[in-house]
Amino acid sequence: MSAPKKVVLAYSGGLDTSIILKWLQIEYGCEVITFTADLGQGEELEPARAKAEMMGATSIYIEDVKEEFVRDFVFPMFRANAVYEGLYLLGTSIARPLISKRLVEIAALEGADAVAHGATGKGNDQVRFELAAYALNPDIKVIAPWREWDLSSRTKLISFAEKHQIPIATDKRGEAPFSVDANLLHTSSEGKVLEDPAVTAPEYVYQRTVSPESAPDTPEHIEICFDAGDPVSINGEAMSPAKILTKLNELGGKHGIGRLDLVEGRFVGMKSRGIYETPGGTLLLEAHRGIESITLDRGAAHLKDELMPKYAELIYNGFWFSPEREMLQAMIDKSQEHVTGTVRLKLYKGSAKTVGRWSDHSLYSEAHVTFEDDAGAYDQKDAAGFIQLNALRLKLLAARKNRLG
């Protein structure tokens, strides 16, 4: 690859990406533009501007993309009830395509010929960043310093930072006890004290949820209203997508909901242990399945559930911008046309349970299921023929088995 002249760097303002900024300038002699996304990670981002300016960034982009993140990425994913390996709500996975999208758009705006990220060569994020970038611009160069440089230890990174007058926070001089990735959907903690999957994660790892044991002793009931598969209000108050997720995070976190200790199969082949907190997403998934239970036809619901693991895997593996994900999304969105109504959840000590649901689009018919007189809504004698037709092949199989001994 020829040396890039101008690079757009996904920049957090932390030590690692600050080192990357300087390394790019030294290694390639190129201009570096920084992009810092406010995805609701809960950190003050303006210091990143000052640090980027101090280090000679050509242009600096700091953008609040929370509404776009929730509206265009999180909500479409939750319409599918997507969970990876049966448990993980894909909080890190779903943020990467948005970051890559903005990197590529800024590169076009600034006339840059490359983008760069701070993901390591062992993880999934390098795949997600780069597949998304190439899907949006097949000619873009992608630089992954962790795969190129020889700064292979914390000591070497600190030494490089000191040599080039890169500010080092006091708490960064020692080994961090674990690494954290956060956005409005979740927090992800990995590494160091969490690497042995046999050892219980210390309580200080959790940042968004109280322990279920410390949660309120009184249950709380909330109501979430949906329109075409997306939540639009909480307890009757209409809110924007990002504000809805923020409120659900607050409610779920207060009740110790959304903790997950997972050993997952990474796309690159190894297994890793992570501690995830997704309080609002856990409430949203429970409520969405609750409203689907009365508004979605059985055949459509079962087909969705069959395809969901594939959809979740595509997102986890970095194929958000692939034609197959978009095909599945079109089917999922079609299924949500009547997923409109309200769900009541009970929040209590780490659990969120649907305890009520209602909709003008409901397919539930009390007249058909009642144990009382159904006034002719359902003729129970019809079930006999239904059973006989479904039993025919089973009878033929049994007869053959008996005939052949």
Please, could you describe this protein's structure?
The protein has 405 residues and is α/β, with parallel strands linked by helices. Among the domains are: 142 residues, HUPs (Rossmann fold, 3-Layer(aba) Sandwich), CATH 3.40.50.620; 138 residues, Argininosuccinate synthetase, chain A, domain 2 (Alpha-Beta Complex). The protein contains twelve helices and 14 strands. Strands 3-2-1-4-5 form a five-stranded parallel β-sheet, with helices on both faces. It has a five-stranded antiparallel β-sheet with strand order 10-9-8-13-14. Strand 13 and strand 14 form a beta hairpin.
SSE blueprint:
Blueprint: E1 6-10, H1 15-28, E2 31-38, H2 46-54, E3 59-64, H3 66-79, H4 96-110, E4 114-116, H5 125-136, E5 141-143, H6 154-163, E6 179-182, E7 187-190, E8 220-227, E9 230-234, E10 237-238, H7 241-254, E11 259-265, E12 271-277, H8 279-295, H9 298-316, H10 323-335, E13 341-348, E14 351-358, H11 366-369, H12 382-404
Parallel strand pairs: 1-2, 1-4, 2-3, 4-5
Antiparallel strand pairs: 6-7, 7-12, 8-9, 8-13, 9-10, 11-12, 13-14
Helix pairs in contact: 3-7, 4-5, 7-8, 9-10
Query: What's the end-to-end separation, in Å?
Result: 70 Å
Q: Helices and strands: which structural class?
A: alpha/beta
Strand portion:
15-25%
CATH superfamily of the domain at 6-65 and 94-175: HUPs
Overall 3D geometry? Answer: elongated
Number of strands: 14
Which class of the domain at 6-65 and 94-175 in CATH terms? Alpha Beta
> Which runs of at least 5 residues are low in confidence (pLDDT < 50)?
none
* CATH topology title of the domain at 6-65 and 94-175: Rossmann fold
Q: Would you tell me the overall average pLDDT?
A: 95
Write the CATH architecture name of the domain at 6-65 and 94-175.
3-Layer(aba) Sandwich
- What topology, given as strand order, has the largest sheet? 3-2-1-4-5
The radius of gyration is 25 Å
Supply the number of helical segments: 12
Helix fraction, binned, reads 40-55%
User: How would a textbook summarize the main sheet?
Assistant: 5 strands, parallel
What letter string, H or E per element, gives the SSE order?
A: EHEHEHHEHEHEEEEEHEEHHHEEHH
